[in-house]
Amino acid sequence: MNINFLDKFLKIIMSPKVFSYTLIWLIVLVFFGTIAQKDIGLYASQMKYFSSFYFLFLGFIPLPGGRLVLLLMTINLFSSMFKRNLWQLKKIGIVIVHLGGLLLLVGGGLTAYFSSEGNMVIAEGEATNYVDDYHNMELAFVNNSLKDSIEYTVVDESLLYEGSRFQIFDEGPEIYVISNIKNVRIENRISPADSIYKGLLEKFVLLPKRPEAENTQNRPALIYKIEGTSNRSDGIYGLFLGQGLNDPFKIKDQIFHSEYRRERTYVPFDIQLIDFEKVMHPGTNVAKSFSSDVNLIENDIPRRTLIKMNEPLRHKGYTFFQASFIDDSEIETTVLATVKNYGRLFPYISSIIMSIGLLIHLLLMMPKMVKGKPK
Amino acid sequence: MKNNIYIWLFFILILASCSTEDKIKTYRLPKKSIETSILVEKEKVPSEISSETKKFTLQWKVPSSWEQFDGHSMRMASFYVPHSTGKGELSITEFSGMSGGIQANINRWRGQISLPPESEQSILTSSNSYNSELGNFLFFELANETSNQGILASIYELSNRTIFVKLSIEQSALIEIKKDFIAFSKSISL
What we know:
The structure holds 2 protein chains of 2 kinds.
Chain A: H1 3-14, H2 16-40, H3 42-50, E1 54-57, E2 61-64, H4 66-80, H5 92-114, E3 116-123, E4 127-143, E5 149-156, E6 165-167, E7 174-181, E8 184-188, E9 204-208, E10 221-227, E11 235-240, E12 249-251, E13 254-280, E14 287-298, E15 301-308, E16 313-315, E17 318-326, E18 333-340, H6 346-371
Antiparallel strand pairs in A: 1-2, 3-4, 3-18, 4-5, 4-13, 6-7, 7-10, 8-9, 10-11, 12-13, 13-14, 14-15, 16-17, 17-18
Helix pairs in contact in A: 2-3, 2-4, 4-5, 5-6
Chain B: H1 2-16, E1 24-30, E2 38-39, H2 51-55, E3 59-60, E4 67-69, E5 75-83, E6 86-96, H3 101-112, H4 120-126, E7 128-132, E8 135-144, E9 149-157, E10 161-170, H5 174-187
Antiparallel strand pairs in B: 2-3, 4-5, 5-6, 6-10, 7-8, 8-9, 9-10
């Protein structure tokens, strides 16, 4: 590559104009992203405009998405720190403001890539140590034939696209993803299934239906093929979210079944629901308030605490909010919205840093301002 | 000029270091043991049950009011389940393979309480799925208000056998017992 070209390119990247343009483009994205929520739902809009590197305007014009714009902004801000004329005592306030802004963007990046949020669902008397993601799915192969433990081999959603092929074990059978359905409808087969179809698919077919705007209302499904088990387990299997029955198959003389479930994040402690209490508005079925009396069990030591609306439990970087409840059976079940945000403190810290920077800059500029311009 | 190239290389390095997370992960979790559970001891299993079944033992947590009794020889265990107006009878049975399938068994039980048979889809739709130590199971509630007969049932389809937990009880007592029954079903483990 021509060194001059690279140098010119870097000068453009470092230009304050880039920061201005990216800022304007972010405003445009926020405007269109907010309007789009009405038609495609909050999650889809967030994915399309803010969590993407690019999106297709009118279906064919690629335009920069939120992540690309913020990445450009970060590079621009970072590279501007290397300008020699910036590192002067009289510009120390500006340097601090830049550092604060950079920290804000780094925090945003950490939140985007490493944070997790989901639901922890606990029935009364039971304990749970994992959180189900709101949107991401995973394919889990469960080996229940071990004596003292259950072995899970979990495949990330990014591998579960149509046509994907992968092996879950070394020298193990190959998994071929035939179909990944966003929202499924399940129908009886009208004619006998071919012998290649196993379990659920022997009697039912999984068909796509129009996805709902609100992603959590969709029921995703997966159809995949196992090849190379060296036994009669080779075949096509179907799974959907919330499936009650497991279709077992053999791999290397061990019995497995698969689950298509919300992506699980395990927390390093258990939460046991002792009692769930809800107060209804008089004469209605509308909940006025609800709370969960829980035991936080860590290293076998329980700590009793109450999670109420607007009074979450915070522990080891996780925050558990009282979000909802399930009351469709005799056993009451609480739903705790759980968030782990590594970048949670960044906005506060960077705001403080930027305020200090502005204050210093103001103080340094004060004599000039007081002196005023010569008449 | 050189400085600029270093900045550029620095960013390439940062970007290249992203997304190295494993796409396929394997982990093991211990099978939780229930301290207060009752182990079905081998000698308590009736001799008529095949040798394969003898090896297969289950544990469960029984509500204090339930009373175990020696039921039919094909059962793994039997309990009387008292309620405010009488008592129901709960049985735990185990069969190899699919044992006729869910539709056939549920329709057989529906017949026992004078209810007409249903399609498989309708049966599956009316069921609820729960997790237990043994794996997922399907819970069914069958009720005939006219004859005041009811059945609560949990079916566990394991890799090579099927476990049935069935409680025959008065229809009016279903609400009273349902919570205990589901908790009992969830407590069943190997």
